Structure formats: structure tokens, C-alpha cells
Amino acid sequence: MKRYILALIIFTSCTSYDDTFEAETSIMYKNIYTEFANFSDSQMTNQLKLECNILEDEMLVHVDDGLTLNYFLEYEYYKYRFKGGTPEEVESLIFPLFYLCGLDEIIEKHWISLDYQESNYKKLSG
After folding, report:
1. Domain ranges in the chain?
2. End-to-end CA distance of the chain, in Å?
């Protein structure tokens, strides 16, 4: 029951979309996902809104599984690195993306450093 209440609180607090971060996020997103390079502005907006929904769903799965938000953030970093983003590209994407999706509190509280994220990524990707 506690997990359900926590997930509900987190979900309702994270469903915002702050379009002031849309342009920056769009540029960085296209650097990693080159298949979106020719999207119109409205197509890119729709893609980013979809990405926010996916991000929120992944966060709720992590919370429901009893995992920490730090682990959720690390998972997101790994996901974009596995897609081919450089460490710097991923860092430049993940910050505006989390702000865009209303998850700024998570990135601000749980991002340790790029070196930390990359070190953990290298351990997993071996």
C-alpha cells in the first residue's frame, strides 16, 4: 500500500511538460537518435512527449520494484549510452530531458557526476 501511495504521489508530481526545455532537449535527442533528425517541430514535440511518458513509466516501475531513484537515473544514463551517445551527449540530453518532463527534482538530487555515471556504465558494459 505504501508503494502505491508513493507511486501515485510521484506520478502526479511528474506529469508536467515544461516546454521551455524543448528546443535544447530536441537538439540533444537528435544527436543520439539520428533517425529523428528530419522530424518537423510538431513531430519532435510529440516524440518528446512520448519520451516523457516512457520516462515516467520507467520511473514508476523502478519505484514499484523497490529500487531507488538513484538506480532509475543510472538506468536512464545506461539506456542512452547503449544507444550510442557519448558520455557528454548523454549528460547534455538527460538534464534538459528530466527538466522537460518535470523530473528535475530527481536529476538534481541523484546525479552525482558524469565520471560516476560513466564508471558504473563501464562496469556493466564490461
Report:
1. 2-125
2. 38
